[in-house]
Amino acid sequence: MTTPKPINGTPEADQQQNPPSTTSRSAMGRLELLINSELFADVVFSVGCDETLMYGHKAILTMASDVFRAQFTGSFRESRENGQEHEILVVDIEPPVFMEILRYAYCDKATISADNVLHLLYAAEKYLLTKLIKKCTEFAEERLCEANVLAIFEQNRNYELEDINRKCLDIICLNPIRMFGDEHFLTLDSKSLELIAGCERMNCQLSHLLKAIEAWLKINEHDAERGNDVTSWI
């Protein structure tokens, strides 16, 4: 049995057609209500691997990002189509991160955490949000340390952000013996290990590096055949 649609005069219909007054809110507060809201939305995004629908307002987005401006006003297909009928695919960003991109576009703020900083930095660079890029970079620099550097370094294989790679490798190469003894070292992917092994300056003997690679190969049997090619990494 289908639920009947609200008709004029009912509270449900009044709420949809005449949303509660927002005149007492600040300008920022009014904009926050529009983040990912269907109210007056004129563009729909299909976001992430689950193709989650998220909503936006072209006038606001074009003022925040030159990339959005090009999409909606330039020669891109999106500028010629009805934004509500043709969803814009965003396949390389997941909904929680895209939500922060919308929040920043509308309100100039975003929630940055250790779990999302690299994902958000990638998204900020994609949409050329310069100030958000700076905030994410500063956040990563302030919190990057020996305790989390291997995890962040491997997470960066998704994006290969050069500044993050460089900062991670600087920390790893400064105290490689400790890094080699970290249990996370043995679970690194082969690309991460190859980047570490290829560093020109490392604060340890070559024998220490070779021993670490040998231990890694024993754990990662699927890459064991690369053992004879270790010298090409160094």
UniProtKB/TrEMBL annotation:
SMART domains assigned to the protein according to its UniProt record, in alphabetical order: BTB (SM00225)
SUPFAM superfamilies recorded: POZ domain
Domain BTB per the UniProt entry, residue ranges: 41-114
Bilayer-spanning residue ranges: none
Listed PROSITE patterns: BTB (PS50097)
Chain positions covered by the region annotation Disordered: 1-25
Record's compositionally biased regions (Polar residues): 13-25
Alphabetized CDD domains for the sequence: BACK (cd14733)
Name of protein: BTB domain-containing protein
